[in-house]
Amino acid sequence: SRNGWTFQKVFGGTFVLVLIALSVLLIYRFYQVIFILLIGILVGTVIRPVSNWFARHGTSQVVGVITVYLVLFFMLVIFILLLLPLVVEQSSAIASSIPVYYQDFLKWTENSSNQVILQLHTYLPEALPGLKNSRQTDQQLLVSAGQALNFLTSAVIGIFIALAISAVLFGLIRMASPISCEEPAISLNIRTPFPS
After folding, report:
1. pLDDT at 176 over 80
2. 122 pLDDT exceeds 60?
3. Are 99 and 127 in contact (CB under 8 A)?
4. Which residues have C-beta within 8 Å of that of residue 117, sequence separation ≥ 6?
5. Strand runs labelled E in the chain
6. What is the DSSP string of 89-144?
7. Which range has the worst mean pLDDT, 26-30, 76-80, 92-96?
8. pLDDT at 2 over 80
9. Cβ-based neighbour number of residue 196 at 10 Å
10. Which long-range contacts (CB under 8 A, 24 or more apart) does 153-156 make?
C-alpha cells in the first residue's frame, strides 16, 4: 500500500482490462454483423431525404423508400448485365492462357542454374490437371454465357418476387394496424411588439 497499489485499484484495473479485451474479441467475432449494421444505418441516412421529398409531394414515405430500392436494384442489374460479357470474355481468355504460362514456367525451371529450382522442377507435373490446352469454341462460350444469363435472370426474378411479397405483406400489416403516421398540427402563437 506504500506505492498506492490497493486491492481495489488492482481489481478495478484488471476488470477494465478484461472488459476491453472482451469488447475487442466481440468486435472481432461479430465484425460482419457490425459492418451490416453500419451499412444499414448509412443506407437509411441516404434514403431519408428522398423519402421525405416523396412525403412532401403527397406520396407516402414507404412508397418513396420502395421506389429508391427499386431504382438502386435496377441500376445494379443493368451494371451487372453490362459487365457480364466482359467478365466472361476476360475469364475465358485467362483460362485459356494458363496452360501456356505453366509450360513457360516449366521451361524456366528446367533451364535454371539454381539447384533448388531444378529440384522443384522434378516435383512439378508436366501439365496442370483439369486444364485443357485448347481454347473454348464459340458455341461452348455461348452455352456457358447463356447458362450464366439464365442464372442471373432467375436470381433477379427471385429477388423481385421477394420484394413484391415483402411490399404486399407490409401493406397488409399497415392496413390492419390503426396507427396513424400523420404529424400533429402545431400552432404557433407569435406576438409581435407592435400592436395591430
Report:
1. no
2. yes
3. yes
4. 109
5. none
6. HHHHHHHHHHHHHHHHHHHHHHT-S-HHHHHHHHHS-SS-TT--SSPPPHHHHHHH
7. 92-96
8. no
9. 3
10. 156/77
Query: What is the pLDDT, as a whole number, of residue 186?
Result: 54
Q: What burial class does residue 149 get, using C-beta atoms within 10 Å of its C-beta: 0-12 exposed, 13-18 middle, 19+ buried?
A: middle
Identify the CA nearest to 144 among candidates 84, 78, 83.
84
Q: Which of 89, 90, 122 is nearest to 106 (CA)?
A: 122
| pLDDT tens digits for range 180-196 | 555 544 555 555 555 55
Are residues 54 and 61 in contact, defined by beta-carbon separation less than 8 angstroms? yes
What integer is the mean pLDDT of 24-52?
84
Alpha-carbon separation of residue 193 from 137, 187, 190, 196 (angstroms) = 88, 19, 10, 9
Q: How buried is residue 22: exposed, middle or buried, by Cβ count under 10 Å (0-12/13-18/19+)?
A: exposed
